[in-house]
Amino acid sequence: MLISDFTFSIFFRLIPISRVLSTGHEAPSGLFDADTIFALSSGHGRCGVAVVRISGPAAATALRSMAGLTCHLPPPRTALLRRITDPHSKEVLDRGLVLWFPAPHSFTGEDSVEFHIHGGTAVITAVLQALGSVSGMRPAEAGEFTRRAFQAGKLDLTEVEGLGDLIHAETEAQRRQALRQMSGDLGRLYQDWSRRLKRCLAHVEAFIDFSEDELIEDGVLNRADLSVQELQAEMLQHLKDERRGERLRSGIQVVIAGDTNAGKSSLLNTLCQRPAAIVSPIAGTTRDVVETALDIGGFPVLLSDTAGLRDSRDVVEREGVRRARERVEQADLTLVVVDCAHLPLDGGGAVASLQGHLRSVLPSQQHPDTGCLLVLNKVDLLSETQRWKLKEELSGVYGLPPVCPISCQTHQGLKDFLTVLHSRHMICYYIILLLYVLTYSVLNLHDFCTWNISKS
Ligand SMILES: Nc1nc2c(ncn2[C@@H]2O[C@H](COP(=O)(O)OP(=O)(O)OP(=O)(O)O)[C@@H](O)[C@H]2O)c(=O)[nH]1
Ligand SMILES: [Mg+2]
User: Fold this and answer.
1) Among the listed ranges 102-106, 249-253, 379-383, which one has the minimum average pLDDT value?
2) What is the residue with the minimal CA distance to atom 27 of ligand 1?
Protein backbone atom coordinates (compact mmCIF):
# COMPACT_ATOMS: atom_id res chain seq x y z
CA MET A 1 0.00 0.00 0.00
CA LEU A 2 1.23 3.45 -0.87
CA ILE A 3 1.50 6.03 1.85
CA SER A 4 -0.41 9.09 0.72
CA ASP A 5 1.41 12.23 -0.40
CA PHE A 6 -0.11 14.17 2.47
CA THR A 7 1.14 11.64 4.95
CA PHE A 8 4.65 12.10 3.66
CA SER A 9 4.39 15.85 3.45
CA ILE A 10 3.42 16.37 7.10
CA PHE A 11 5.89 13.72 7.98
CA PHE A 12 8.82 15.65 6.68
CA ARG A 13 7.53 19.14 7.36
CA LEU A 14 7.06 18.48 11.05
CA ILE A 15 10.24 16.65 11.86
CA PRO A 16 12.17 19.86 12.64
CA ILE A 17 9.61 20.64 15.39
CA SER A 18 11.29 18.00 17.47
CA ARG A 19 14.48 19.97 17.35
CA VAL A 20 12.79 23.21 18.24
CA LEU A 21 10.89 21.63 21.09
CA SER A 22 13.43 19.29 22.52
CA THR A 23 13.87 20.29 26.13
CA GLY A 24 16.36 17.98 27.63
CA HIS A 25 16.75 20.60 30.32
CA GLU A 26 20.44 20.36 29.72
CA ALA A 27 22.47 23.11 28.17
CA PRO A 28 23.55 22.12 24.67
CA SER A 29 27.29 22.62 24.52
CA GLY A 30 28.70 25.66 22.78
CA LEU A 31 25.55 27.72 23.19
CA PHE A 32 26.55 29.82 26.16
CA ASP A 33 27.60 33.41 25.53
CA ALA A 34 30.86 34.60 27.00
CA ASP A 35 29.34 37.96 27.90
CA THR A 36 27.68 38.47 31.22
CA ILE A 37 24.50 40.46 30.87
CA PHE A 38 22.54 42.52 33.36
CA ALA A 39 19.22 44.37 33.30
CA LEU A 40 16.53 45.83 35.45
CA SER A 41 13.97 43.01 35.38
CA SER A 42 11.19 44.60 37.39
CA GLY A 43 10.16 47.28 34.88
CA HIS A 44 10.69 50.99 34.82
CA GLY A 45 9.15 53.60 37.09
CA ARG A 46 9.51 54.37 40.77
CA CYS A 47 8.60 51.43 43.02
CA GLY A 48 9.36 49.95 46.43
CA VAL A 49 11.63 47.16 45.28
CA ALA A 50 13.45 46.75 41.97
CA VAL A 51 15.07 43.55 40.76
CA VAL A 52 18.32 43.66 38.83
CA ARG A 53 19.28 40.40 37.19
CA ILE A 54 22.72 39.26 36.08
CA SER A 55 23.48 36.20 34.00
CA GLY A 56 26.74 34.79 32.69
CA PRO A 57 30.20 33.69 33.73
CA ALA A 58 31.07 36.96 35.53
CA ALA A 59 27.90 36.88 37.69
CA ALA A 60 29.76 35.48 40.70
CA THR A 61 32.52 38.12 40.35
CA ALA A 62 29.93 40.89 40.28
CA LEU A 63 28.20 39.44 43.33
CA ARG A 64 31.44 39.15 45.27
CA SER A 65 32.68 42.62 44.41
CA MET A 66 29.39 44.43 44.94
CA ALA A 67 28.01 42.58 47.96
CA GLY A 68 31.28 42.54 49.92
CA LEU A 69 31.64 38.75 49.81
CA THR A 70 35.35 38.07 49.81
CA CYS A 71 35.46 34.29 50.02
CA HIS A 72 32.23 32.26 50.09
CA LEU A 73 29.26 32.84 47.87
CA PRO A 74 25.86 32.76 49.59
CA PRO A 75 24.00 29.44 49.69
CA PRO A 76 22.12 28.95 46.37
CA ARG A 77 18.67 30.54 46.09
CA THR A 78 18.81 32.04 49.57
CA ALA A 79 18.19 35.73 50.15
CA LEU A 80 20.96 37.55 51.98
CA LEU A 81 20.72 41.15 53.23
CA ARG A 82 23.88 42.99 52.14
CA ARG A 83 25.29 46.44 51.55
CA ILE A 84 25.58 46.90 47.80
CA THR A 85 28.65 48.89 46.91
CA ASP A 86 30.41 50.28 43.87
CA PRO A 87 33.14 47.73 42.98
CA HIS A 88 35.76 50.45 42.42
CA SER A 89 35.04 53.34 44.78
CA LYS A 90 33.47 51.05 47.43
CA GLU A 91 30.77 53.67 47.97
CA VAL A 92 27.59 52.15 49.42
CA LEU A 93 24.86 52.38 46.79
CA ASP A 94 22.02 50.69 48.69
CA ARG A 95 21.15 47.96 51.18
CA GLY A 96 19.21 45.08 49.67
CA LEU A 97 18.82 41.38 49.16
CA VAL A 98 21.18 39.36 47.02
CA LEU A 99 20.43 35.91 45.60
CA TRP A 100 22.83 33.48 43.96
CA PHE A 101 21.64 30.93 41.37
CA PRO A 102 24.57 28.75 40.27
CA ALA A 103 24.33 27.08 36.83
CA PRO A 104 22.47 25.11 35.69
CA HIS A 105 19.72 25.80 38.25
CA SER A 106 18.78 29.26 37.10
CA PHE A 107 16.31 30.75 34.61
CA THR A 108 18.97 31.02 31.90
CA GLY A 109 20.86 27.89 32.90
CA GLU A 110 23.92 30.09 33.52
CA ASP A 111 25.37 31.43 36.76
CA SER A 112 22.91 34.13 37.76
CA VAL A 113 22.53 36.74 40.47
CA GLU A 114 19.65 38.92 41.55
CA PHE A 115 19.91 42.18 43.44
CA HIS A 116 16.64 43.24 45.11
CA ILE A 117 17.23 46.91 45.70
CA HIS A 118 15.12 49.97 46.48
CA GLY A 119 13.18 51.11 43.44
CA GLY A 120 14.18 54.77 43.28
CA THR A 121 15.58 56.00 39.98
CA ALA A 122 18.90 57.12 41.49
CA VAL A 123 19.49 53.79 43.25
CA ILE A 124 18.71 51.78 40.13
CA THR A 125 20.90 53.98 37.93
CA ALA A 126 23.82 53.76 40.37
CA VAL A 127 23.62 49.96 40.61
CA LEU A 128 23.34 49.55 36.82
CA GLN A 129 26.30 51.89 36.27
CA ALA A 130 28.35 49.99 38.81
CA LEU A 131 27.54 46.70 37.08
CA GLY A 132 28.54 48.17 33.72
CA SER A 133 31.96 48.97 35.15
CA VAL A 134 32.69 45.31 35.99
CA SER A 135 34.81 43.77 33.25
CA GLY A 136 33.02 41.32 30.95
CA MET A 137 29.57 42.73 31.76
CA ARG A 138 27.21 44.55 29.45
CA PRO A 139 23.53 45.56 29.52
CA ALA A 140 21.21 42.84 28.19
CA GLU A 141 19.39 43.28 24.91
CA ALA A 142 15.62 43.02 24.88
CA GLY A 143 14.59 39.39 25.44
CA GLU A 144 18.17 38.23 25.90
CA PHE A 145 17.60 36.43 29.21
CA THR A 146 14.77 34.48 27.61
CA ARG A 147 16.88 33.73 24.52
CA ARG A 148 19.60 32.31 26.76
CA ALA A 149 17.00 30.25 28.64
CA PHE A 150 15.79 28.88 25.30
CA GLN A 151 19.33 28.14 24.13
CA ALA A 152 20.05 26.37 27.38
CA GLY A 153 17.00 24.15 26.86
CA LYS A 154 15.19 25.66 29.85
CA LEU A 155 12.19 26.76 27.75
CA ASP A 156 10.88 25.61 24.39
CA LEU A 157 9.44 28.06 21.89
CA THR A 158 5.84 27.59 23.02
CA GLU A 159 6.89 28.27 26.61
CA VAL A 160 8.81 31.37 25.50
CA GLU A 161 5.66 32.59 23.74
CA GLY A 162 3.62 31.78 26.87
CA LEU A 163 6.07 33.76 29.01
CA GLY A 164 5.71 36.77 26.70
CA ASP A 165 1.93 36.45 26.84
CA LEU A 166 2.00 36.19 30.65
CA ILE A 167 4.01 39.38 30.95
CA HIS A 168 1.56 41.17 28.67
CA ALA A 169 -1.62 39.55 30.05
CA GLU A 170 -4.18 42.16 31.00
CA THR A 171 -7.19 40.02 31.78
CA GLU A 172 -7.85 36.92 33.85
CA ALA A 173 -8.43 34.67 30.85
CA GLN A 174 -5.25 35.85 29.14
CA ARG A 175 -3.31 35.13 32.33
CA ARG A 176 -4.71 31.61 32.57
CA GLN A 177 -4.03 30.79 28.92
CA ALA A 178 -0.48 32.17 29.12
CA LEU A 179 0.23 30.20 32.28
CA ARG A 180 -1.06 26.99 30.70
CA GLN A 181 1.15 27.54 27.67
CA MET A 182 4.13 28.48 29.81
CA SER A 183 3.77 25.38 31.91
CA GLY A 184 4.36 23.44 28.71
CA ASP A 185 0.88 22.11 27.78
CA LEU A 186 1.29 23.03 24.14
CA GLY A 187 4.92 21.96 24.07
CA ARG A 188 3.99 18.54 25.48
CA LEU A 189 1.34 18.08 22.81
CA TYR A 190 3.77 18.95 20.02
CA GLN A 191 6.45 16.76 21.52
CA ASP A 192 4.02 13.87 21.59
CA TRP A 193 3.27 14.45 17.88
CA SER A 194 6.96 14.69 17.17
CA ARG A 195 7.69 11.40 18.98
CA ARG A 196 4.90 9.60 17.16
CA LEU A 197 6.02 10.96 13.79
CA LYS A 198 9.61 9.94 14.43
CA ARG A 199 8.47 6.44 15.34
CA CYS A 200 6.55 6.20 12.06
CA LEU A 201 9.52 7.57 10.17
CA ALA A 202 11.79 4.96 11.73
CA HIS A 203 9.39 2.19 10.69
CA VAL A 204 9.18 3.48 7.12
CA GLU A 205 12.96 3.82 6.86
CA ALA A 206 13.41 0.32 8.24
CA PHE A 207 10.91 -0.97 5.70
CA ILE A 208 12.78 0.74 2.85
CA ASP A 209 16.17 -0.52 4.02
CA PHE A 210 15.37 -4.04 5.14
CA SER A 211 12.09 -5.28 3.64
CA GLU A 212 13.84 -7.24 0.90
CA ASP A 213 15.74 -9.18 3.54
CA GLU A 214 12.39 -10.14 5.08
CA LEU A 215 13.54 -8.92 8.47
CA ILE A 216 10.52 -6.67 8.79
CA GLU A 217 7.23 -7.98 10.13
CA ASP A 218 4.13 -7.70 7.92
CA GLY A 219 1.92 -4.64 8.01
CA VAL A 220 4.58 -2.20 9.27
CA LEU A 221 3.91 0.19 6.44
CA ASN A 222 0.14 0.04 6.90
CA ARG A 223 0.44 0.71 10.62
CA ALA A 224 2.75 3.66 10.01
CA ASP A 225 0.33 5.07 7.46
CA LEU A 226 -2.61 4.67 9.87
CA SER A 227 -0.70 6.38 12.67
CA VAL A 228 0.17 9.29 10.42
CA GLN A 229 -3.44 9.60 9.32
CA GLU A 230 -4.50 9.71 12.97
CA LEU A 231 -1.95 12.43 13.57
CA GLN A 232 -3.20 14.30 10.53
CA ALA A 233 -6.73 14.25 11.96
CA GLU A 234 -5.49 15.45 15.37
CA MET A 235 -3.50 18.28 13.81
CA LEU A 236 -6.36 19.43 11.62
CA GLN A 237 -8.66 19.37 14.66
CA HIS A 238 -6.08 21.36 16.61
CA LEU A 239 -5.85 23.96 13.86
CA LYS A 240 -9.65 24.21 13.60
CA ASP A 241 -10.03 26.00 16.91
CA GLU A 242 -11.77 29.15 15.62
CA ARG A 243 -8.57 31.13 16.39
CA ARG A 244 -9.45 30.88 20.08
CA GLY A 245 -5.92 31.51 21.34
CA GLU A 246 -5.41 34.40 18.97
CA ARG A 247 -8.72 35.94 20.01
CA LEU A 248 -7.81 35.58 23.64
CA ARG A 249 -4.47 37.21 22.98
CA SER A 250 -5.62 40.11 20.88
CA GLY A 251 -9.21 40.45 22.08
CA ILE A 252 -12.62 39.79 20.63
CA GLN A 253 -13.60 42.35 18.03
CA VAL A 254 -16.97 43.85 18.96
CA VAL A 255 -18.17 46.50 16.52
CA ILE A 256 -21.00 48.99 17.10
CA ALA A 257 -22.73 49.86 13.83
CA GLY A 258 -25.99 51.32 12.59
CA ASP A 259 -27.64 54.44 11.23
CA THR A 260 -26.45 57.92 12.09
CA ASN A 261 -27.76 59.26 15.39
CA ALA A 262 -28.89 55.82 16.59
CA GLY A 263 -26.77 56.28 19.70
CA LYS A 264 -23.70 54.21 18.78
CA SER A 265 -21.20 56.56 20.37
CA SER A 266 -23.46 56.88 23.41
CA LEU A 267 -23.39 53.09 23.72
CA LEU A 268 -19.58 52.99 23.49
CA ASN A 269 -19.30 55.68 26.17
CA THR A 270 -21.81 53.88 28.38
CA LEU A 271 -19.94 50.59 28.10
CA CYS A 272 -16.49 52.02 28.74
CA GLN A 273 -17.83 54.52 31.30
CA ARG A 274 -15.98 57.50 29.89
CA PRO A 275 -16.61 59.96 27.08
CA ALA A 276 -14.35 58.16 24.62
CA ALA A 277 -16.39 59.24 21.57
CA ILE A 278 -18.09 62.55 20.76
CA VAL A 279 -21.87 62.43 21.14
CA SER A 280 -24.06 65.03 19.46
CA PRO A 281 -27.51 65.35 17.92
CA ILE A 282 -25.87 66.16 14.58
CA ALA A 283 -26.14 63.15 12.26
CA GLY A 284 -22.73 62.02 11.04
CA THR A 285 -20.76 63.08 14.12
CA THR A 286 -18.49 60.05 14.18
CA ARG A 287 -16.27 59.74 11.11
CA ASP A 288 -13.37 57.56 12.18
CA VAL A 289 -13.35 54.29 14.09
CA VAL A 290 -13.10 54.92 17.84
CA GLU A 291 -11.62 51.95 19.67
CA THR A 292 -11.52 51.10 23.34
CA ALA A 293 -10.30 48.00 25.13
CA LEU A 294 -12.61 46.42 27.70
CA ASP A 295 -12.40 43.48 30.06
CA ILE A 296 -15.69 41.62 29.84
CA GLY A 297 -15.93 38.75 32.30
CA GLY A 298 -12.14 38.35 32.24
CA PHE A 299 -11.94 38.28 28.47
CA PRO A 300 -10.35 41.05 26.45
CA VAL A 301 -12.73 42.83 24.13
CA LEU A 302 -11.84 45.47 21.58
CA LEU A 303 -14.94 47.64 21.23
CA SER A 304 -15.18 49.88 18.15
CA ASP A 305 -17.62 52.70 17.49
CA THR A 306 -18.07 53.45 13.80
CA ALA A 307 -19.50 56.11 11.52
CA GLY A 308 -23.26 56.01 10.95
CA LEU A 309 -24.09 54.16 7.74
CA ARG A 310 -25.66 56.43 5.17
CA ASP A 311 -25.01 57.73 1.66
CA SER A 312 -23.07 60.94 1.76
CA ARG A 313 -21.45 63.33 -0.67
CA ASP A 314 -18.86 64.28 1.92
CA VAL A 315 -15.65 62.43 1.06
CA VAL A 316 -14.55 62.24 4.68
CA GLU A 317 -17.86 60.75 5.77
CA ARG A 318 -17.80 58.33 2.84
CA GLU A 319 -14.38 57.13 3.99
CA GLY A 320 -15.78 56.77 7.52
CA VAL A 321 -18.62 54.62 6.18
CA ARG A 322 -16.15 52.49 4.19
CA ARG A 323 -14.09 51.92 7.35
CA ALA A 324 -17.22 51.10 9.31
CA ARG A 325 -18.23 48.44 6.78
CA GLU A 326 -14.70 47.04 6.80
CA ARG A 327 -14.83 46.73 10.59
CA VAL A 328 -18.20 44.99 10.48
CA GLU A 329 -16.74 42.47 8.00
CA GLN A 330 -13.90 41.69 10.45
CA ALA A 331 -16.06 41.72 13.60
CA ASP A 332 -16.57 38.71 15.83
CA LEU A 333 -19.73 40.33 17.15
CA THR A 334 -21.67 43.27 15.70
CA LEU A 335 -23.95 45.34 17.89
CA VAL A 336 -26.51 46.73 15.43
CA VAL A 337 -27.87 49.85 17.10
CA VAL A 338 -31.33 51.06 16.11
CA ASP A 339 -33.14 54.17 17.33
CA CYS A 340 -36.38 52.53 18.41
CA ALA A 341 -38.21 55.87 18.47
CA HIS A 342 -37.98 55.73 14.68
CA LEU A 343 -39.50 52.28 14.31
CA PRO A 344 -42.96 52.11 12.69
CA LEU A 345 -44.79 51.01 15.83
CA ASP A 346 -48.31 52.20 15.32
CA GLY A 347 -49.08 50.55 11.99
CA GLY A 348 -46.93 47.42 12.60
CA GLY A 349 -43.91 46.80 10.43
CA ALA A 350 -41.29 47.01 13.22
CA VAL A 351 -39.97 43.55 12.36
CA ALA A 352 -39.61 44.39 8.68
CA SER A 353 -37.88 47.62 9.62
CA LEU A 354 -35.42 45.81 11.93
CA GLN A 355 -34.70 43.29 9.17
CA GLY A 356 -33.97 46.22 6.88
CA HIS A 357 -31.51 47.61 9.47
CA LEU A 358 -29.77 44.26 9.69
CA ARG A 359 -29.53 44.01 5.91
CA SER A 360 -28.04 47.46 5.65
CA VAL A 361 -25.41 46.81 8.35
CA LEU A 362 -24.36 43.18 8.00
CA PRO A 363 -22.37 41.84 5.06
CA SER A 364 -24.67 40.11 2.58
CA GLN A 365 -23.18 36.67 3.26
CA GLN A 366 -23.66 36.92 7.05
CA HIS A 367 -26.77 35.37 8.48
CA PRO A 368 -28.38 37.83 10.93
CA ASP A 369 -28.77 35.01 13.46
CA THR A 370 -25.03 34.75 14.00
CA GLY A 371 -22.44 37.08 15.48
CA CYS A 372 -24.90 39.89 15.95
CA LEU A 373 -27.04 41.54 18.61
CA LEU A 374 -29.82 44.04 17.93
CA VAL A 375 -29.61 46.93 20.37
CA LEU A 376 -32.82 48.98 20.42
CA ASN A 377 -31.64 52.25 21.86
CA LYS A 378 -33.66 55.20 23.21
CA VAL A 379 -36.46 53.13 24.77
CA ASP A 380 -36.91 56.05 27.15
CA LEU A 381 -38.55 57.90 24.26
CA LEU A 382 -41.29 55.27 23.86
CA SER A 383 -44.58 55.51 25.66
CA GLU A 384 -45.79 52.55 27.72
CA THR A 385 -48.24 51.67 24.93
CA GLN A 386 -45.55 51.78 22.27
CA ARG A 387 -43.33 49.48 24.29
CA TRP A 388 -46.11 46.95 24.57
CA LYS A 389 -46.81 47.16 20.86
CA LEU A 390 -43.16 46.58 20.08
CA LYS A 391 -42.97 43.70 22.50
CA GLU A 392 -46.10 42.14 21.00
CA GLU A 393 -44.78 42.47 17.50
CA LEU A 394 -41.41 40.95 18.30
CA SER A 395 -42.56 38.07 20.49
CA GLY A 396 -42.36 34.74 18.71
CA VAL A 397 -40.60 36.22 15.69
CA TYR A 398 -37.91 34.00 14.19
CA GLY A 399 -34.98 35.05 12.07
CA LEU A 400 -33.98 38.02 14.19
CA PRO A 401 -30.87 38.03 16.39
CA PRO A 402 -31.28 38.54 20.13
CA VAL A 403 -32.88 41.89 20.88
CA CYS A 404 -31.68 44.12 23.73
CA PRO A 405 -33.74 47.26 24.33
CA ILE A 406 -31.81 49.88 26.25
CA SER A 407 -31.53 53.55 26.87
CA CYS A 408 -28.05 55.02 26.95
CA GLN A 409 -29.58 58.10 28.53
CA THR A 410 -31.51 56.58 31.45
CA HIS A 411 -29.63 53.24 31.49
CA GLN A 412 -32.90 51.31 31.24
CA GLY A 413 -32.28 47.71 30.20
CA LEU A 414 -28.53 48.20 30.52
CA LYS A 415 -28.14 45.68 33.30
CA ASP A 416 -29.71 42.90 31.24
CA PHE A 417 -27.68 43.88 28.20
CA LEU A 418 -24.50 43.73 30.30
CA THR A 419 -25.50 40.36 31.70
CA VAL A 420 -25.61 39.09 28.16
CA LEU A 421 -22.21 40.57 27.35
CA HIS A 422 -20.65 39.57 30.67
CA SER A 423 -21.66 35.95 30.54
CA ARG A 424 -18.18 34.49 30.78
CA HIS A 425 -19.03 31.25 29.11
CA MET A 426 -20.28 33.08 26.09
CA ILE A 427 -16.89 34.39 25.30
CA CYS A 428 -14.52 31.75 26.52
CA TYR A 429 -15.17 28.69 24.41
CA TYR A 430 -16.04 28.76 20.75
CA ILE A 431 -16.51 32.39 21.49
CA ILE A 432 -18.76 33.56 18.77
CA LEU A 433 -20.90 30.49 18.37
CA LEU A 434 -21.50 30.30 22.08
CA LEU A 435 -22.03 34.03 22.26
CA TYR A 436 -25.00 33.63 20.03
CA VAL A 437 -26.33 30.40 21.51
CA LEU A 438 -26.11 31.52 25.12
CA THR A 439 -27.36 34.99 24.38
CA TYR A 440 -30.34 33.48 22.74
CA SER A 441 -30.97 31.04 25.57
CA VAL A 442 -30.56 33.76 28.19
CA LEU A 443 -33.06 35.85 26.32
CA ASN A 444 -35.51 32.99 26.09
CA LEU A 445 -34.94 31.86 29.64
CA HIS A 446 -35.86 35.14 31.17
CA ASP A 447 -38.41 35.89 28.52
CA PHE A 448 -36.20 38.71 27.62
CA CYS A 449 -38.79 39.92 25.17
CA THR A 450 -40.59 41.40 28.13
CA TRP A 451 -37.34 43.35 28.39
CA ASN A 452 -37.90 44.13 32.04
CA ILE A 453 -38.75 47.62 30.90
CA SER A 454 -41.51 47.88 33.41
CA LYS A 455 -39.15 46.78 36.20
CA SER A 456 -36.37 49.22 35.43
N1 LIG B 1 -33.39 60.10 24.52
C2 LIG B 1 -32.26 59.46 24.24
N3 LIG B 1 -31.34 60.07 23.49
C4 LIG B 1 -30.20 59.39 23.22
C5 LIG B 1 -29.97 58.10 23.70
N6 LIG B 1 -28.76 57.69 23.26
C7 LIG B 1 -28.26 58.70 22.53
N8 LIG B 1 -29.12 59.72 22.50
C9 LIG B 1 -28.94 61.01 21.80
O10 LIG B 1 -28.92 60.75 20.41
C11 LIG B 1 -28.04 61.64 19.76
C12 LIG B 1 -27.06 60.88 18.90
O13 LIG B 1 -26.24 60.12 19.75
P14 LIG B 1 -24.84 59.57 19.29
O15 LIG B 1 -24.36 58.65 20.34
O16 LIG B 1 -23.92 60.68 18.91
O17 LIG B 1 -25.27 58.78 17.99
P18 LIG B 1 -24.37 58.06 16.92
O19 LIG B 1 -25.08 56.84 16.47
O20 LIG B 1 -23.00 57.87 17.41
O21 LIG B 1 -24.38 59.12 15.75
P22 LIG B 1 -23.32 59.30 14.55
O23 LIG B 1 -21.97 59.35 15.12
O24 LIG B 1 -23.72 60.60 13.97
O25 LIG B 1 -23.53 58.19 13.61
C26 LIG B 1 -27.39 62.47 20.86
O27 LIG B 1 -28.07 63.69 20.99
C28 LIG B 1 -27.60 61.63 22.11
O29 LIG B 1 -27.67 62.41 23.30
C30 LIG B 1 -30.97 57.49 24.51
O31 LIG B 1 -30.89 56.38 24.98
N32 LIG B 1 -32.10 58.23 24.75
MG1 LIG C 1 -21.19 58.54 16.79
Assistant:
1) 249-253
2) 281
Task: Starting from the CA of residue 336, give the closest ligand.
Answer: 1
Domain residue limits, the chain: 1-23+155-240, 36-148, 248-450
Determine which residue's CA is closest to atom 7 belonging to ligand 1.
263
Q: How many Å is the Cα radius of gyration of the chain? A: 31
Q: How far is the CA of 123 from the centre of ligand 1 (A)?
A: 52
In three-state secondary structure terms, 419 is: helix
User: Which residue ranges have their beta carbon within 6 Å of ligand 1?
Assistant: 260-266, 279-281, 283-286, 307-308, 377-378, 380-381, 407-409
Among the four given CATH numbers 3.20.20.70, 3.30.420.270, 3.40.630.30, 3.40.50.300, the one describing domain 248-450 = 3.40.50.300
Please name the helix (run of DSSP H) or strand (run of DSSP E) that holds residue 321, with its range, or none: helix 315-330
Q: How far is the CA of 378 from the centre of ligand 1 (A)?
A: 8
Q: Of all atoms in ligand 1, which is nearest to the CA of residue 377?
A: 31
User: Which neighbouring-strand residues pair with 254?
Assistant: 303, 333
The verdict on domain 36-148 having CATH code 3.40.50.800 is no
Tell me the pLDDT tens digit for each residue of 232-274: 998 888 777 655 666 666 678 899 999 999 999 999 999 888 9
- Among the listed residues 384, 382, 378, the one whose alpha carbon sits nearest the alpha carbon of residue 406: 378
> What's this model's pTM, rounded to 2 decimal places?
0.60
